[in-house]
Design goal:
Order of helices and strands: HHEEHEHEHHHEHHEEHEHHEH
CATH superfamily: HybD-like
Helix content: 40-55%
Mean pLDDT: 86
CATH architecture: 3-Layer(aba) Sandwich
Low-confidence stretches: 1-7
CATH class: Alpha Beta
Largest sheet: 9 strands, mixed
């Protein structure tokens, strides 16, 4: 059950997940029945995995969720690093199917794809993007060197980039991605990144896809330039895995779940002091490695077939 946030807690709660930004399901259902919510929400079970689809339709939906107009798909994959090979394969298929459905609406039939793995490879909880890109199969160079071989592959033109973070390069990620896009001229950009969640239950157990792009670091209070169609001039699909929870979010979520309506002054002083930290899984190394591989396999299955 997704709970409605109390305004007094809302300013302390950070999440990149659209599924954690909705009104509670009873309120949402009633509003949908009245046609007044600006949101369309559905749940399905696909190959044993729960798939939640949130469509933000207009400004009313934007106000209710804090998300721009677009489609947000949340696939609850559970602990894939403990799953069987068959279960992991099913997860890859579900993610690929959802990615393909988004891409088919945005990508010209002859268009290429630029895959960008965002984040810092040296920090486990931020390494989802770079690790995923490492396993993506690229083909753009083949087209340039052997057009006949490229035609036999029956693949789209795929290029990939792991731009690092501004603290490593001194260059905004958006600038690097824009430069690569100007050279590769893709019909679609897919960005892969680590996200912040509200609930520890979702850490490395959820994959989110959306057609609105993303702002790197927004879930942890960062202010990097957005990577979206407006900024890059190309449709952008974002794939994200939550790997951290902000400590303030963790505390406020626990208070709200406990039904406590007031924040004690002493706690509010702590929340306001700007000294929050971030919580990740104790086994985040194997979790991030597994999810990165799953995403890479899904990307390959989507665009190389």
């Amino acid at each position: 059950m997704i709970m409605e946030k109390c305004n007094k807690y809302k300013k302390y709660i950070r999440t990149d997940l659209a599924a954690e930004s909705m009104p509670d399901t009873d309120t949402l259902t009633a509003a949908n029945n009245e046609g007044a919510s600006g949101i369309k929400y559905t749940e399905e079970n696909k190959s044993g995995y729960q798939v939640e689809t949130l469509q933000v339709l207009n400004e009313h939906g934007e106000s209710a969720t804090g998300r721009p107009v677009g489609t947000y798909i949340t696939i609850n994959v559970g602990k894939l690093w403990l799953a069987s090979d068959d279960q992991v394969g099913d997860a890859v298929d579900v993610i690929s199917d959802e990615l393909r459905a988004l891409a088919d609406r945005l990508l010209p039939k002859s268009g290429g794809v630029l895959i960008c793995g965002l984040g810092n490879r040296e920090i486990t909880s931020d390494a989802v993007g770079p690790l995923a890109v490492r396993d993506v199969t690229v083909t753009r160079h083949i087209r340039g060197s052997d057009a006949k071989l490229f035609a036999l592959l029956g693949s789209r033109e795929i290029s990939a980039l792991a731009p690092g973070v501004v603290g490593q390069t001194g260059i905004e990620t958006a600038e690097l991605v824009r430069g690569a896009s100007e050279k590769a001229v893709p019909g679609l950009i897919v960005v892969i990144d680590a996200l912040a969640a509200r609930s520890t239950d979702r850490l490395a157990a959820t994959v989110q896809l959306c057609d609105t792009g993303l702002s790197p670091g927004s879930g942890i209070g960062g202010s990097r330039k957005a990577l979206n169609a407006d900024a890059l001039g190309v449709p952008v699909i974002a794939i994200g895995v939550p790997t951290i929870v902000d400590s303030s979010t963790l505390v406020c979520d626990a208070f709200e779940r406990a039904g406590l309506d007031e924040i004690p002054p002493a706690l509010e002083a702590v929340l306001e002091n700007g000294r929050s930290f971030f919580v990740s899984r104790g086994d985040s190394d194997i979790a991030v490695s597994t999810l990165s591989s799953v995403i890479a396999r899904a990307v390959n299955a989507t665009f190389l077939g």
